Amino acid sequence: MLSLAMSAAELGAYIRESGLAELPAFDAAFRGENRYDSVDPANKTPFPPQWRDLVRLHRLVRDRKVMTILEFGVGWSTLVLAHALACNEVAYGQQIDGLRKATPFELFSVDDMAEFIESTRQMMPEHLRARVTLQFSPCAMGTFNGRICTYYETLPNICPDLIYLDGPSQFSVTGDVRGISTRAKDRMPMAADLLTLEHFLLPGTLVLVDGRTANARFLRANFQRNWRYTHDSESDVHLFELTEPPLGKINQAQIEFCLGSEWLRSLND
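The structure corresponding to this sequence follows.
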């Protein structure tokens, strides 16, 4: 799997060479982290860009030739993911006729906060907006096999090859289960949407969980298929890769095109 580590020099070189430097707010400084930033219910503004995290996302999309992305939570990541898909379309758009992709080079982003969706829409350059679907969906408390969690009410009806989990906000989730909800500073996000979608996902699918370690552990404990799990504790990133034999010839063709024959051979390691 792609290494997540990058030196400062490698980071700067990638930003310049990839075209990310042309995106809005490129000159924004790295954010000074406050331990309560992510649990502040009054915050209605996306966090400033954290370029190391954003470059990691961009590299994954480019290196894996990703074509369809499902994103939970919108913001600067939406902009960068859309840019990476645009690059992939330029590089590979003429090579995918033999693949079955209903939504090639498209990003579907779901968020439970209308303010975030609107601010993301406004900061996105016009040439990227056409490939991005921004979907508002309320999020409510629920259960998965008796375990308390959260669910978005509606999701895009797509088949993604990369899923980025960085939502929902724990404070905008409605309802409770036996008095328990995520709306407290000492709770944490616990989204279960991917558990209900798991058996629709294709071998080769990659899930990236940004932080949300408790949620990542919840997913790992409840996934039923063969997922290769990696935790980069320094970057606070969790990766789940669905490492199963192809479902058939069509799925195999996509894997060989996007990930290479070596990926298939690695299943036997």
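Residues 161 and 205 are 5 Å apart (CA to CA).
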